[in-house]
From TrEMBL:
Matching InterPro entries: Kelch-typ_b-propeller, NANM
Protein name: Kelch motif-containing protein
Species of origin: Allokutzneria albata
Keywords of the record: Signal
Pfam family, one: NANM
Signal sequence coordinates: 1-25
């Protein structure tokens, strides 16, 4: 592992633009598949058939993903890799969090690498910058892969740049000041070299040109607290969309959306989404945002949560426990997937419209990546407990 000194790297990075361009795919552009994710190489537990002839990448939810110096970097992520055992079928490991790092070259091929990051990590907020992929928070385990049935998942306050040095053929990691609190499922965007992060009821900011000043806590949006929201920066504003929260009235899926202006230091509510896009993806475009995927099926979500609560009140393995667990399994197995429609937000008109459909199983819980100015969807979750190794590119 190579660590740049902050002073040396900051001097070089100051000569580069901080953010890539907005998505340049036209409304009529088509989707194409890139090479699928390689299999995880780390054989850390005998219940996972790493290295067997049939071993393939199942896909990763919540991976670290972003573009830097022409390369696509993907790290960490979480899945259920035990054969025939998914999120609610009895398994030894629970949800597995990984720490492998994959790098796609500019020509679209995956490099033969065995890189890792120190901790297993998923559900971070991720942003592509000229200084590296900015990774904010997340959850997982210290010191490598582990499973939620073996140890307690912990949330992280860590913030760092992750980058691939092609000359050294090495993954490099540069630490930034930690968040005011550990968090996962946060969303982030960069405006004028300041990164903004929203999660729960909190809204934070860090000046990436002056990281030593630390994080600032800013007034939050004029709406309910939420997690698993969608966020992006466009034309000098940070946008916060959708999300969900558990309230006294039960689970709420939100359609409201907000824009924060750093210049005015204020929020304003923008047009509500046609439906919630919790855990979806948002890309900045020339005139607004491109939003896709995510979950909007509140009825099914509440049914799963209700049955899970009933199951967890029973002794594990008892007949009543199995009865409730079988219902949850049935719901998951017959889940029809996430939102297929693709939305566009016109910032000038403050309006939403449907602009097509995602070409495959719609994704959730994966970062929105602009790679070579084109939207890319890297792996992700396609229904509860099920991931995909497919990598999509628009345009």
């Amino acid at each position: 592992m190579v660590e740049f000194s902050r002073r040396t790297f900051a001097a070089a990075a100051s000569l580069l633009p901080l953010l890539p361009a907005t998505a340049r795919a036209s409304p009529g552009a088509s989707w194409s598949r890139l090479a699928p994710m390689p299999p995880n190489p780390t054989a850390w537990h005998p219940a996972i058939p790493v290295g067997k002839p049939h071993w393939r990448q199942l896909g990763l939810a919540g991976p670290v993903a972003g573009a830097h110096a022409g390369h696509l970097i993907v790290a960490g992520g979480a899945n259920f890799p035990e054969p025939a055992k998914t999120s609610n079928r009895p398994n030894a490991l629970g949800k597995v969090y990984w720490n492998d790092v994959f790098v796609m070259a500019p020509d679209g091929s995956w490099l033969p690498t065995t890189f890792t990051v120190p901790n297993s990590l998923a559900y971070s907020a991720c942003l592509s910058t000229a200084r590296g992929v900015l990774v904010i928070g997340g959850e997982g385990f210290l010191n490598g892969p582990n499973g939620s049935a073996l140890a307690q998942v912990r949330k992280f306050a860590d913030v760092f740049y992750l980058r691939y040095h092609s000359q050294r053929r090495a993954i490099e990691r540069e630490q930034l000041p930690p968040l005011p609190r550990p968090l996962s499922y946060g969303v982030a965007g960069i405006v004028d070299e300041v990164v903004y992060v929203a999660e729960g009821a909190d809204f934070y900011a860090l000046d990436l040109d002056r990281p030593g000043d630390g994080w600032r806590t800013l007034p939050s949006w004029p709406g309910d607290p939420r997690s698993v929201a969608v966020g992006a920066a466009h034309n000098g504003r940070f946008y916060l969309l959708s999300g969900r929260a558990q309230t006294s009235a039960g689970w709420q899926f939100y359609r409201d959306a907000y824009a924060y202006s750093p210049r005015l230091r204020s929020w304003r509510r923008i047009a509500d989404l046609p439906w919630c896009v919790t855990a979806g993806l948002a890309y900045p475009t020339a005139d607004g945002l491109l939003v896709l995927g995510g979950d909007r099926d509140l009825e099914r979500w509440n049914l799963i949560q209700e049955r899970t609560a009933l199951r967890d009140r029973e002794p594990k393995g008892s007949p009543r426990w199995h009865e409730h667990n079988d219902v949850i399994t049935w719901i998951h197995d017959h889940h029809t997937g996430f939102t297929p429609e693709v939305l566009r937000y016109d910032a000038a008109r403050d309006s939403w419209r449907t602009t097509g459909h995602f070409p495959g199983p719609p994704p959730a819980t994966t970062p929105a990546v602009l790679w070579r100015e084109h939207p890319v969807v890297v792996s992700g979750e396609i229904r509860p407990g099920v991931r995909t190794p497919v990598v999509w590119r628009l345009g």
